[in-house]
Amino acid sequence: MNGPIGVTVLGSTGSIGVSTLDVVQRHPDRFRVAALTAHRNVEGLLQQCLTHRPAFAVMADLAAAARLEDRLRALGEPTEVLAGAAGLRHVAAMAETDYVMAAIVGAAGLLPTLAAARAGKRVLLANKEALVMAGALFVAAVREGGAELLPIDSEHNAIFQCLPVGFDGADAGRSGVRRIVLTGSGGPFRTAALERLPEMTPDQACAHPNWNMGRKISVDSATMMNKGLEVIEAHWLFGVASEQIEVVVHPQSVVHSMVEYEDGSVLAQLGNPDMRTPIAHALAWPRRLASGAAFLDFFQLRPLEFQPPDFNRFPCLRLAFAALAAGGTAPAILNAANEVAVRAFLERKIRFTDIASVVEHVQGQVARRAADTLEWILEDDASARAEADGWIAARALEV
Question: Nearest CA to 332 among 344, 341, 343, 320?
Fold first, then answer.
């Protein structure tokens, strides 16, 4: 490859996007920014365009794209502005792009991430919903497009680092892999009294003890739905059965995940809770480069704790395991219901504990199908959202 590697960041104004640009900026000889995208954060994307000078900028929101283009033209900046889903798919698949950071939160990230896979890019996957909603289709697109798929979630990146080179889940027995252990902090309500959970506010749910994340993923961490989605993602990423995936609550967030082998060995990846570490790993793989993250000081570490998850406290984790076992479009239905419920909670329309109630209700009302086509997946996603909206409208809190 001649010259710096072209990087497109889908969701560049979010926490993962910002961290990606921080790592990229540290290595201007190795990387250049090909395109940046955001939903409707015009000011944030404008400042990133002025700093990184991408060839393209995309706003998913059409009105926001028009405002961004006006601002850039007024400043004499040459960045070309595209809009909507078509613009996202274009920059994910264009020739000027070598690596695609897929960091759009939620189902909105599925189609552009699929476009990157089909175009044979190195896909740095931070959007877990692409695999949760359409795991089989996405894995097939990666193989058919000749793409590289590298996980960015700290847990899956840790597992990737601990597995044998070239590991294929179908060869788990020959590779000696017994199980994959996903660690999770337990979020801000790990030790809160169960009777107090209904009164927890969005700000309390978003006050993660270890990680600095966006509000949606912070709420998912508080319910441990985030870990449930990661279980489904791990199934597709590594080709292992749900029985080979275990979740362990690890409040310190130092051990990011582990792989246990048949000989009794356990390999773990450790580090400070900083997303720049897995981002740098995926950007440089199979080599290593500086990420900007602080190095781990073993003499300052608190004692490391490991606990089984409490499904009474975290019913969303149980619901995610059930969706994976059910198969078909059940994970897409789970994800859609959760996205609607979390948004309603953040808007103070429902209580924190209602999130799981919404998801369980929708799982019981929307019939799953085989996830054989993108059309069916998106139809069931829409049905789940409509059912969740109906539940919420009937029970919305007075605010």
Answer: 320
